[in-house]
Write a structure and sequence with these properties.
Elements (H helix, E strand, L loop, with lengths): L1 H22 L3 H14 L5 H15 L2 H12 L4 H17 L3 H11 L5 H14 L3 H14 L3 H18 L2 H9 L7 H14 L3 H8 L8 H14 L3 H21 L1
Helix pairs in contact: 1-2, 2-3, 3-4, 3-5, 4-5, 5-6, 5-7, 6-7, 7-8, 7-9, 8-9, 9-10, 9-11, 10-11, 11-12, 11-13, 12-13, 13-14
């Protein structure tokens, strides 16, 4: 029993170190700890580690290895792990622009307890492909069956983007404003800023975007700010924002 407890402590420590390494953007080190954890994982834990390793290989761009780990997850008896593996397979196929394959995996989730995740991803897929009626249907159904406020907020953000595409500015603002003070507030503000640029309200757009310059959306904020300065013929500021965004993009490329 003592040896079993020691092994569990070691496993928990490896997971903790893997997560810390990931937070620090050290993917290689995170992967190393997850592999060590996999070697000693119990039957109930192995699926979680396989899933995390699959995600790591997606980040590294090694999609073949990522798929191998997700396929291993699909062989397990743990339904929850299998569902998440289906979700990750769908995301990967969408990333690779294999749209029908992505739909195939998402559709398999529609009869599971993780239906809400599939609805959100299907909505995003249809929105990107311009099928706005289908997208709205998926987002609204997702809101109706959402298991958390976070899921609802994600759908509200996507509905705001949809209304923006339709030119329904008032409705788009309604959805974006409903997310202020929520966990995805910065994403909503980024979308509001982009919308104001498209409407020609450049000073208002700048006012919205500048406070976001150190957020998780920094790269996209810099690109939109450069767009504003270019439209205003402020080429010195445009050059600064473009240079800074290129540096930020290089860092993200190194990370992935």
């Amino acid at each position: 029993i003592g040896e079993s407890k020691d092994m569990q402590k070691k496993y928990d420590s490896l997971l903790y170190l893997a997560e810390i390494a990931q937070i620090s953007n050290n993917i290689e080190e995170s992967e190393k700890y997850y592999k060590e954890a996999l070697a000693i994982a119990g039957e109930n834990d192995i699926g979680h580690v396989l899933l995390q390793l699959g995600k790591k290989y997606v980040l590294k761009g090694d999609f073949s290895k990522a798929n191998n780990y997700f396929e291993e997850c699909l062989k397990l008896e743990n339904e929850n792990i299998r569902n998440y593996a289906l979700l990750e397979r769908g995301k990967l196929e969408y990333k690779l622009e294999n749209i029908e394959k992505a739909r195939f995996y998402y559709n398999q989730l529609l009869t599971t307890s993780n239906k809400n995740y599939a609805l959100l991803e299907l909505g995003v897929l249809e929105l990107e492909k311009g099928s706005l009626v289908k997208a709205r249907s998926y987002f609204e159904e997702c809101i109706n069956c959402a298991s958390s406020k976070r899921d609802v907020n994600c759908c509200m953000l996507e509905l705001g983007k949809l209304e923006k595409k339709l030119g329904n500015i008032q409705m788009a603002n309604y959805y974006f404003d409903s997310l202020l003070n929520e966990h995805n507030e910065n994403s909503a503000l980024l979308e509001k800023g982009k919308m104001e640029i498209d409407l020609g309200n450049l000073e208002r757009a700048r006012e919205i975007l500048l406070p976001l310059i150190n957020s998780d959306n920094k790269l996209y904020v810099l690109l939109e700010l450069s767009r504003i300065e270019q439209k205003l013929s402020n080429y010195d500021k445009f050059a600064v924002y473009m240079y800074t965004s290129s540096q930020e993009e290089t860092q993200e490329t190194d990370y992935y």
